[in-house]
Amino acid sequence: MTIPEKVINRLTMYHFILEDMEGSEKYVSSTKFANFLNIDNSQVRKDLKYVDNQGKCRVGFEVESLKRKIEECLGFKKTKDVFIIGAGNLGSALAKYDSFNDYGLNVIAMFDKDLKKIGTTINGKKVFDIVKINELTGKMGVKTAILTVPREFAQEVASYVAKSGIKYIWNFTTCILDVPKDVKVWNENLIGSFLQFTQNDNDI
Amino acid sequence: MTIPEKVINRLTMYHFILEDMEGSEKYVSSTKFANFLNIDNSQVRKDLKYVDNQGKCRVGFEVESLKRKIEECLGFKKTKDVFIIGAGNLGSALAKYDSFNDYGLNVIAMFDKDLKKIGTTINGKKVFDIVKINELTGKMGVKTAILTVPREFAQEVASYVAKSGIKYIWNFTTCILDVPKDVKVWNENLIGSFLQFTQNDNDI
DNA sequence: ATCTTATTGGGAATTTAATCACAATTTGAT
DNA sequence: ATCAAATTGTGATTAAATTCCCAATAAGAT
After folding, report:
1. Are residues B12 and B94 both part of a single domain?
2. Between B12, B184, B187, which is nearest A192 by CB?
3. Is the entire prediction scored with pTM above 0.90?
């Protein structure tokens, strides 16, 4: 069953909440989730229909089993191997971001063109020369790359990376990439996200 | 006029594209934007209706004027002051992220509780003791904080920050925050974003 | 001058997402 | 045993977002 993207996003947030409740509370209601996220409680119940878990009238949803069901449903325990392209500030921060591991996102290696960075290790992830990506993509069967290079190199690097066999690019740069049709790009547009957040409030 | 959030996000991406075209091309068509972002071209034209800029039949939209209009419309030139709470990997990376400046996002100062970090300077931004935030929020009139502390401290720090007068929290942690009603939280859920990207592709 | 083609603008239709409303259920209190 | 309250599940409704469609326009070719 394919779950709508927005539902996936909310399910991960319910999981964050469950993480905090586990151990201290046995049940949680849709209203509790709804209040945390400022959404309608029936929305929550509809979302939870996607994971195979039913609530109890007058009581709510069982914390532990719901948490486990979301994990199964979204594959948190399934390892998703990725490369990080660009061992700069953001790339390094993401390499050190432990929450990725908790959700199955496994950084296999990093790539850069800076000789001072190549050969070093960041949080246990080795930094390779970008020209090695072709060889390593094939050898390790990695299909996903996180792109964190400076804007001015983003297009060039993305094209290079696409040629190596990478099929999914999670793009953290402010460059909109032009890549072959068989490569899927997901723009993590932080600027846009901030503006969505603040745009309709004039006192920022 | 309030612009829907999704439109705001796409407008910033059109701007990214225009940034690359400026100087080399005079006109751009809705189809060109649409192809870059894999969306329908009439969607692009409807988005562009929100900024006061009309296209020319058979030619498209003028690159320079459209770029300028988007900037005006979304307030890229208007300074938006923010604090970064948490001078760890992600906080430091965001403090060094120059694209923020280009879009008017101005990091005024950083806060942490680690004595080794307090007093240092990251990309020109001074790191203060978190207990100073109350004083500085008032003095500098800052209303927005970027939260990048470790998950286990997120709720505690968010409550503290909210008490200082901060009204907007851009939350990069994997903790869903419980804050007073007059504080608006925007969850930058990277885990959820990644799963939205990859969930319906089974070969990751 | 006429034709072809690329493009906009915008109405209509469709699809997707969110909200509302309420019956059914279950718990705990009286 | 009865009643009040909290909660789920879901059908109906509303709202928002996207796509489809095509007339109108203007550029460039013939």
Report:
1. no
2. B12
3. yes
